[in-house]
Design brief:
Elements: H1 5-11, E1 16-22, E2 27-33, E3 41-48, H2 53-72, E4 79-86, H3 93-109, E5 114-118, H4 124-134, H5 152-171, E6 180-184, H6 188-199, E7 203-207, H7 211-217, E8 224-225, E9 238-241, E10 260-261, H8 273-280, E11 284-285, H9 288-291, H10 294-304, H11 309-334, H12 338-353
Parallel strand pairs: 3-4, 3-5, 6-7, 6-9, 7-8, 9-10, 10-11
Antiparallel strand pairs: 1-2, 2-4
This protein binds 3-phenylpyruvic acid.
The site of 3-phenylpyruvic acid has 14 residues, from β3 and α10.
Length: 374
């Protein structure tokens, strides 16, 4: 469904939206700062081709709101933001570099209100380029450029921990030995998750719509490919959405044949009702932003707070485990869905930092629109 910009902005309870037309490439850049209540905002830069401009804006707005929840649940002192670069078509390397440099200058002009990192369609190498014009507001550069590298492995560690917590709740043991997990999407998070699951003795099934990703996954001899029409119906213990958002919806949920859903993708629920749909089917859902915080926790932790890799891994494991256990317990004791329990937890943490967010009284939004040229 495509919403008007009016509806998108009215529904979004964030702070600032910057819109920039990149004339040389024909790209549109959206930087959405949803909240700076807990600290300056941070969030990845997503780069892809959308059907319509509204779709790109919607992605930036929704993803920025998810980042606020992601940081608020484990009480990380950052706010939610996200950037989307909507490119008209695949760009030649020099054109791509040009867009990233001009985008970096835009990030720099925000003066630290927004810092960025990798997301779908951008890599650690891209962060190196963006940092040429946006430093110090860039996370996740390559180690050779002084960064902590790709965020996928840390995100996968958090998702893996979430799967353990869900299994502990559903089966009475966190051990993954012999558990069957279906990974939807074999990008950087899905692949790292599959490797961890195999090392823990789980049986790994996977699907990806992209032929190159499937070809790469063939290098993982332990993983079994599942065709597109069997993704939702295949029997498994845990279904792990690690591709794009919206895969849990009115069409897919009735087909699921699993006990729990725990994955790395952002915004997995197509609509708010889908959390209740999952609960009605007896499927335990781990809210995406509770378990996919690993990259956003570990990379800034290592680059800004001086954590070692071991300290970052420990922080991701401990904080995801504690948060998800609490969310499941709160959901059970209050007779609600884990999604509602997690939102309440985030709201409590946000309220503790200052005035409560997400109430009608504080639902103020200032949309600042810029249409400029570099
Ligand atoms: C996300 O978790 O969705 C991100 O945006 C990743 C991120 C955010 C901030 C710094 C590094 C990675």
């Amino acid at each position: 469904m495509c919403l008007s910009l009016d509806a998108l902005l009215t529904d979004w309870n964030g702070e600032t939206l910057v819109v920039r037309r990149d004339a040389p490439s024909g790209a549109w850049i959206f930087v959405a700062v949803h909240s700076t209540q807990l600290g300056p905002s941070a969030g990845g830069t997503r780069m892809k081709t959308y059907g319509r401009l509204e779709d790109a804006a919607q992605d930036a707005l929704r993803l920025s709101a998810a980042m606020t929840l992601k940081f608020a649940v484990p009480r990380i002192a950052r706010g939610g933001g996200k950037a989307v670069i909507h490119i008209p078509a695949a760009l030649a390397p020099e054109e791509r570099r040009g867009v990233l440099l001009r985008y970096g200058a835009l990030v720099q002009s925000l003066g630290g209100q927004f810092s960025t990192g990798p997301d779908v369609g951008t890599s650690a190498d891209d962060m190196n380029v963006i940092a040429e014009t946006a430093a110090p507001y860039v996370f996740g550069r390559t180690p050779s450029a002084g960064g902590a590298g790709a965020s996928g492995p840390a995100t996968a560690l958090g998702v893996f921990t979430g799967i353990e917590v869900a299994c502990e709740r559903v089966f009475g043991t966190a051990s993954l030995a012999g558990r069957r997990v279906l990974v939807q999407g074999m990008g950087s998070v899905g692949t790292a998750l599959a490797v961890r699951l195999d090392a823990a003795g789980a049986e790994v099934l996977y699907h990806d719509t992209d032929e190159a990703a499937v070809a790469a996954a063939r290098d993982l001899p332990f993983a079994t490919f599942v065709p597109a029409d069997a993704v939702y119906g295949t029997a498994c213990d845990v279904f792990a959405p690690c591709a794009l958002g919206g895969t849990l919806n009115a069409a897919s949920i009735p087909r699921l044949n699993c006990r729990a859903v725990v994955g790395g993708a952002n915004n997995q629920l197509g609509a708010p009702d889908d959390a209740e749909r999952l609960r009605a089917r007896g499927i335990l859902y781990a809210p995406d932003y509770v378990v996919n915080v690993g990259g956003a926790m570990a990379i800034p932790g290592m680059e800004q707070d001086g954590w070692s890799l071991e300290e970052a891994d420990e922080a991701v494991r401990d904080r995801v485990r504690a948060a998800l256990r609490q969310v499941f317990e709160d959901a059970e004791s209050s007779g609600t869905t884990p999604e509602t329990a997690a939102r309440r937890l985030a709201a409590t943490h946000l309220a503790g930092a200052g005035s409560p967010q997400e109430t009608d009284a504080t639902r103020s939004m200032t949309a600042q629109t810029r249409n400029g040229h570099p």
